[in-house]
Amino acid sequence: MEVKSSSSDNRAVAYIRVSTKGQDEKFSPEVQEDSCRQYARNNHLKIIKEFREARSGWKLNARVEFYKMLDFIKTQKILNVIFAFGDRISRNTEDYVLLKGTKVRFHNAISGTSFDPNDPNDFEETAAFEHDQVDAKKSSAKTRRKVIDSQSKKVEKGEYPAAAPLGYTYKPEMVGGKWKNIISVDPERGRFIKELFKLYSTGEYTLREITEKMKSLGLRSKHDRVLMHEEIRRYLKTPFYYGRFRWGGKEYDNQGTYEPIISKALFDTVQEVLAGKSTVVKWGRDFKYKGLLQCHLCGCAMVGDEQNKTLKSTGKTKTYVYYHCTSGKKTEFYQAKFGQDRCPLYHRPYYTEKEVDEFLEREIESLYIDPETYGWVRQQLESDYQNLKELNEAEIESLKKEQSRIDGQESSLILLIAEASRDSAKDKIRGLAEKKVEELESRKAEIEIRLEELQRGEEAVSLEEIEDTLELSKALKDKYLAASPEKRRKLNNLMFRNVLVTEKNSLIIPEGEENYISAVPLYIVWNEPFKSLWEIGFIHGMDEAKAEARERAETEKSAKIKKWRGRRDLNSRPLA
To answer: How many CA atoms within 13 Å lie on the side-chain side of 422?
Structure first.
């Protein structure tokens, strides 16, 4: 077919793509470039920009250069696009629709034909091209189906079809007369993973503290990168380490296909610590404010300790509970910040449990609830709950769609890894693909954690519970004072996010709360609705204090006037 072009609209772009290493040889970028350039010369077209890409084309949004080309075509008003093979330019319906929408003329450099998919006169060429697209899509779907079926068979046999998590590596073994990569414990990182679970199960570390601890011990990613605390959280929530794995939204037993690093019991203990339900006892006892107090100076946990004191008056020994900072950070941190090896709150003076009791009881007493306040807070919380629920539902839907897209990308990469594993010359390709799978797995774990948070949030809060909480607020002080240590811990978790503690005779200005300052060395970070109730109570208390001050001032003023009038009456007056 004769190519249609004119000198006024002869500008063109060329698109070159290969999707696998094997295709480089047959459809190499150089071959495609030469074909496109020769076609342009023969048909009086001027290529002003070339877009080269080496990505799979079956998945929407997978090809960065393709979308850059679309933007360039639109902004520069390009009328011609040249490509070597039809399934190189578009291999899914969405891409074809987007490209067709730019109103460009398609030029196939190999067949030497061109057509405008929007021109009714070119319907035969357009139909042939679209037929090829359908065939290409079928081919991609069949390949993907084969990969999914292969993965399904693997997981049913307890074989994990993706890259194993940190702590494991692959060891080639002869199985059934064929070499096969078997998941095995990484002798270096495996012991770090085991240590991570053991240390965190004690309940003595926050996520940030255990991240720093593992960093100091030498734990690194597969690519020797320092791990972030969210990655540590993901590993702590990964059942793979005790012999089970998640795939396609389900959990499977490994059926002995690889060696677990930890026991199921240790994994379960760690999950309790992560969920804040741990019953791990520190210092021999489960103290009343365990897990609630946080040092404002260094950010570490405050823990309880028992000390015996002999009373001089009676000679009897009495046991007191004190709280102090764990001082869990590196010596260098404390030397740089305080000029000493430990946090100042690690040493005396400690806070007695009685001092903490009195502070919290005073703050709880300031919660203000009257009928008008009760109705207003309930209405606001119900409105916030409905808005949050709608936002959560939208976010959950978006995250699930992203999960589905990642599963598709992983399937394509796993197929590439399998092909590259059979050829040592393709180790670099395999390495890049495995790194990408690791990134996708990391993102999937983040999505799972966020979905759990969103779903747990919906299950944990209801309109009935909001009302129950407000009812509790009315008689909270009496219930709090009468509560056992275990019951008080539950109330603490309900009311407080945490309680910041600093040195005695010091004040706390909480980070991000510039409008607040604590007049005592403890500062409560409230959960809702108690934060709102406390603020209302604070304002109410200020109003009452102002009213009392005005009344006192008026009383003093009246007394002064009376006194002045009395003195005036004592003055001598002229005789009438």
So the answer is: 7
CB under 8 Å to 133, separation ≥6 — which residues? Answer: 86, 87, 90, 91, 93, 96
Which residues face 50 on adjacent strands?
14
Q: Yes or no: is domain 7-145 CATH 3.30.420.10?
A: no
**Residues 304, 353: contact at Cβ < 8 Å?**
yes
Q: What pTM value is reported for the model?
A: 0.40
At 171, the amino acid letter reads K
Q: Which pLDDT tens digit goes with each residue over 461-515?
A: 455 655 655 665 556 666 666 777 667 776 777 677 778 888 877 665 555 444 4
Which tokens sit at 270? 């760690």
CATH class of the 168-274 domain in this structure: alpha beta
Using CA atoms, how far residue 116 sits from 102, 111, 125, in Å, is: 11, 15, 9
State the burial class of residue 237 (Cβ atoms within 10 Å of its Cβ: 0-12, 13-18, 19+): middle
Strand 178-185 versus strand 244-247 pairing type: unpaired
- Say how many C-beta atoms besides its own lie within 10 A of residue 331's C-beta: 11
Task: Please state the domain extents for the chain.
Answer: 7-145, 168-274
Angle, in degrees to the nearest 10, between helices 371-421 and 530-569: 150
Residue owning tokens 């056992």: 484
Cβ(2)–Cβ(122) below 8 Å: no
C-alpha 79/C-alpha 48 separation (Å) is: 12
